[in-house]
């Protein structure tokens, strides 16, 4: 059973507000940086591929850092790691405004990645711990609403600020939100202490995890630019396999592993992992591909494309609270299945729109894609939380975040590799069909989840 730190509703709301503010600067900057990346590259005189590491490098840092810092939070204290994370996030966001070249900007964005790697898993663990089981899915739904909804507004405001004052002003505007998260985390969040006072951080496991994830993501980057038979790609894949085998060997032998591999035998742990990563493959791959299609296939400008793209995060944000409420009634597995099915349908709409040159189908596809993630996202975290011991919440959320980042980067790199140099409707359609095929695996993840029928309105429970 999950341990409830408190049933104090006022305190739970304060934790929710603090957790939202803790990721707000990051989520808002992600949408804005993606939109003005070409402008930033021009200011620094850098190649687009180079400045693209401001996005890829950040995801690399998060993919490697989240499970490690989630485990440190389990061992040292989740409040402490959340406070440290918001402090790093504040420094990194502020520093981005004063970057002097492409290298410094990429470094500061990776520093932001370190901050969010500490903030996200520990903030989610604090949030889940503060709410009773029957209210967790709703709370996570509201978290997702702000996490995805505010960046929509930020994208519009950021474009306006960039036009008037330059892209640096955006980071200066976002810094106070990070400062507020730091201040509130210090003053509002209670210090329950380490979830496992005798816990030790498995640094060998952390090192080997990094040695597995990093070459895998670099292999994806090379695959996008060349082919799967490229010697560099094959070499990086070989290093990934060796690193994974070494990680498994070490984790099976140490007393306190970075992640207890036995959790993967629990359907309510593995199911959400699969559902989230494969849904994000299609969601983020489609997110990066759609503006290119709108501009090349339909001849729209950047401004017009941006307004159309708002349908996806807008629906995502609006649907998340309903996803949380429905999960409390019908179970997380049902919502993950529904999200996976809708994601497949959205990819089909994109593919048909590209082939038939129908812009209104793109809008429908964007809306269904947002609906898919809005309905399923609350269940990813709450279902996984019921499948692990309370003392492992931080590292479990960290591992889920790593799998999500791997899914996102895999989707972007793979769907762009399938697109190749072509920009015709058939080329875009082919990429979206691939995204849809991969998204079907998310449905399998949802089908793995089981539900404890003794708790009619509670979240799903562990089967392992």
3D structure, described in words:
The chain is built from 16 helices and no strands. The N terminus and C terminus are likely disordered. It has three domains: 190 residues, Up-down Bundle (Growth Hormone, Chain: A); 56 residues; 202 residues, Up-down Bundle (Growth Hormone, Chain: A), CATH 1.20.1250. The two termini are 13 Å apart. Helix 1 packs antiparallel against helix 5. With 464 residues, it is mainly alpha-helical. The radius of gyration is 21 Å and the shape is globular.
Key terms:
globular, single chain, Growth Hormone, Chain: A, about 475 residues, mainly alpha
Are there runs of 5+ residues with pLDDT below 50, and where? 1-6, 453-464
Q: Proportion of β residues?
A: under 5%
Shape designation = globular
Named at the architecture level, the CATH assignment of the largest domain is Up-down Bundle
Helix content: over 70%
- Count of extended strands: 0
What radius of gyration results from the CA coordinates? 21 Å
Return the average pLDDT rounded to an integer.
81
How many domain regions? 3
CATH superfamily of the largest domain: MFS general substrate transporter like domains
Number of helices: 16
CATH fold naming of the largest domain? Growth Hormone, Chain: A
User: Could you describe the largest sheet, including whether it forms a barrel?
Assistant: none
Structural class: mainly alpha
Indicate the CATH class of the largest domain. Mainly Alpha
Distance between the termini: 13 Å
Order of helices and strands: HHHHHHHHHHHHHHHH
């Amino acid at each position: 059973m999950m341990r409830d730190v408190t049933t104090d509703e006022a305190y739970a709301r304060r934790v929710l507000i603090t957790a939202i503010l803790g990721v707000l600067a990051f989520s808002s900057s992600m949408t804005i940086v993606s939109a003005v990346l070409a402008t930033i590259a021009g200011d620094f005189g850098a190649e687009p591929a180079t400045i693209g590491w401001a996005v890829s490098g950040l995801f690399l840092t998060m993919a490697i850092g989240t499970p490690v810092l989630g485990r440190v939070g389990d061992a040292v204290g989740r409040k402490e790691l959340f406070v440290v994370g918001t402090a790093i996030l504040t420094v990194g966001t502020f520093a981005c405004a004063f970057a002097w070249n492409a290298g410094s900007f990429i470094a500061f964005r990776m520093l932001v990645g370190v901050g969010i790697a500490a903030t996200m898993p520990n903030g989610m663990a604090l949030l889940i711990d503060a709410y009773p089981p029957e209210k967790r899915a709703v709370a996570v739904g509201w978290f997702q609403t702000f996490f995805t909804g505010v960046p929509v507004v930020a994208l519009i405001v950021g474009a306006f600020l960039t036009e008037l004052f330059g892209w640096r002003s955006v980071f200066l505007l976002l810094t106070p939100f990070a400062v507020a998260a730091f201040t509130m985390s210090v003053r509002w969040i209670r210090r329950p202490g380490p979830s496992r006072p005798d816990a030790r951080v498995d640094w060998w496991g952390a090192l080997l995890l990094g040695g597995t994830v990093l070459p895998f993501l670099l292999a994806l980057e090379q695959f996008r630019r060349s082919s799967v038979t490229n010697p560099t790609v094959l070499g990086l894949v070989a290093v990934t396999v060796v690193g994974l085998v070494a990680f498994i060997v070490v984790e099976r032998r140490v007393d306190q592993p970075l992640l207890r591999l036995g959790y993967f035998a629990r359907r309510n742990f593995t199911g959400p992992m699969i559902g989230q990563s494969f849904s994000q493959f299609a969601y983020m791959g489609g997110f990066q591909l759609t503006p290119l299609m709108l501009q090349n296939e339909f001849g729209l400008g950047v401004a017009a494309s941006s307004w159309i793209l708002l349908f996806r995060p807008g629906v995502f944000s609006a649907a998340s609270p309903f996803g949380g409420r429905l999960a409390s009634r019908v179970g997380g597995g049902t919502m993950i299945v529904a999200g996976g099915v809708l994601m497949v349908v959205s990819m089909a709409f994109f593919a048909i729109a590209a082939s038939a040159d129908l812009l209104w189908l793109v809008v429908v596809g964007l809306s269904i894609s947002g609906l898919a993630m809005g309905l399923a996202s609350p269940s990813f975290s709450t279902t996984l939380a019921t499948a692990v011991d309370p003392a492992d919440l931080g590292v479990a959320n960290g591992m889920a975040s790593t799998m999500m980042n791997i899914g996102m980067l895999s989707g972007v790199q793979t769907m762009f590799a399938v697109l190749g140099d072509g920009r015709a409707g058939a080329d875009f359609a082919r990429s979206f069909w691939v995204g849809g095929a991969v998204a079907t695996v998310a449905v399998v993840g949802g089908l793995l989840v089981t539900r404890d029928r003794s708790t009619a309105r509670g979240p799903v429970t562990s089967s392992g």
